[in-house]
């Protein structure tokens, strides 16, 4: 190798590339040890980088405390089991590490606010090749950043969505329903939504059924006032927010039915909303340019959102 080529190799001691503004307050823990966000790095031979061979969870805090922590960690463990990644530590250790990361991040915050928390486990570094047995030491990473929830006007006026027809990568495999690091379908669907000026893409399968959002679960209210959401048997992600929303809805006396709708059924709904950990409930007022209900958020969506938020605050109190 020539001296000129050698000089082009990045020196390990060179300053790390500047982080985007949104990540400058991020804090990172790798295998239980905190490291500076600007210096945090993963090997190019890590299978999470090479093949998307990883699982993850996203949660948020209320009053500085993680909501549904045990459920998120158990789902992370279940996702890992489905793709045959052995967790490097037990679920109790993971819970403790996430709690400690949240506590440290809240104390360090310049202003009071909530946190976004992402926990990830990759299969780790191994010789090049698809065989999972080539890697034996999984890597775990925890990232905390200040929470950036949707703008208030999105809850007030609702969001537009588009549909995206695709087969999800894990469908009809052992990994169906797992939260995988390989998010290509969601990435492409989100790009389509952004081009259309929409805030979410709804995944539609080959049979014309609406399964879920790119990064959310889908709910709709029919003309009789029954609340619907696709069932877990359709292979959707079993959302933690979804689960708690169903409990809240039943506590309010609302009839719930877990069925997967056709696109026509969704378009004829009285109300539609999506759910996720960070966004809670967001009302959907249009799908592919067609208005839902009266083209504005409905009263049941607002009632459920208020009840869900109160439930979250009670849960962490």
Which terms summarize this structure?
6-stranded antiparallel β-sheet, 9-stranded mixed β-sheet, 317 residues, D-amino Acid Aminotransferase, Chain A, domain 1, single chain, alpha+beta, D-amino Acid Aminotransferase, Chain A, domain 2, 2 domains
Distance between the termini: 61 Å
Task: Look at the structure and give the CATH class of the largest domain.
Answer: Alpha Beta
The percent range for strand residues is 15-25%
Shape: globular
Total strands: the figure is 15
By CATH, the superfamily of the largest domain comes out as D-amino Acid Aminotransferase, subunit A, domain 2
Order of helices and strands: HEEHEEHHEEHEHEEEEHEHEEEH
Tell me what you see in this structure.
The radius of gyration is 21 Å and the shape is globular. It has 317 residues and is an alpha+beta fold. The model has no long low-confidence stretch (mean pLDDT 92). The strands form two sheets. Strands 7, 8, 9, 10, 11, 12, 13, 14 and 15 form a nine-stranded mixed β-sheet that branches. A six-stranded antiparallel β-sheet has the order 2-1-6-5-3-4. It contains nine helices and 15 strands. α7 (240-251) packs across α9 (299-316). β3 (54-62) and β4 (65-66) form a beta hairpin. 30% of the residues lie in helices and 24% in strands. The protein folds into two domains: 21-146, D-amino Acid Aminotransferase, Chain A, domain 1 (2-Layer Sandwich); 152-316, Alpha-Beta Barrel (D-amino Acid Aminotransferase, Chain A, domain 2).
């Amino acid at each position: 190798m020539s001296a000129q080529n050698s000089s082009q190799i990045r020196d390990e001691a060179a300053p790390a590339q500047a982080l985007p503004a949104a990540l400058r307050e991020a804090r990172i823990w790798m295998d239980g040890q905190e490291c500076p966000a600007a210096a945090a790095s993963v090997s190019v031979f890590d299978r999470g980088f090479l093949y998307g061979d990883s699982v993850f969870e996203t949660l948020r805090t209320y009053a500085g405390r993680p909501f549904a922590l045990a459920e998120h960690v158990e789902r992370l463990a279940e996702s890992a089991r489905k793709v045959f990644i052995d967790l490097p530590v037990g679920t109790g250790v993971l819970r403790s590490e996430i709690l400690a990361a949240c506590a440290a991040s809240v104390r360090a915050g310049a202003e009071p606010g909530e946190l976004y928390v992402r926990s990830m486990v990759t299969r780790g570094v191994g010789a090049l090749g698809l065989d999972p047995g080539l890697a034996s030491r999984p890597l775990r990473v925890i990232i905390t950043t200040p929470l950036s929830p949707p703008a208030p006007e999105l809850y007030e006026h609702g969001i537009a969505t588009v549909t995206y027809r695709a087969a999800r990568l894990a469908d009809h495999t052992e990994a169906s329903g797992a939260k995988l690091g390989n998010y290509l379908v969601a990435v492409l669907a989100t790009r389509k939504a952004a081009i259309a000026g929409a805030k979410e893409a709804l995944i539609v399968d080959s049979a014309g059924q609406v399964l879920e959002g790119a990064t959310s679960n889908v709910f709709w209210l029919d003309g009789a006032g029954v609340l619907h959401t696709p069932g877990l048997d359709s292979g959707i992600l079993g959302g933690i927010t979804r689960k708690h929303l169903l409990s809240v809805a039943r506590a309010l006396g609302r009839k719930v039915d877990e069925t997967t709708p056709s696109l026509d059924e969704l378009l004829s709904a009285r109300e539609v909303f999506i759910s996720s950990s960070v966004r809670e409930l967001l009302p959907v007022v249009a799908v592919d340019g067609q208005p839902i209900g009266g083209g504005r958020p409905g009263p049941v969506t607002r009632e459920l959102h208020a009840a869900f938020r109160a439930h979250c605050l009670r849960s962490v109190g």
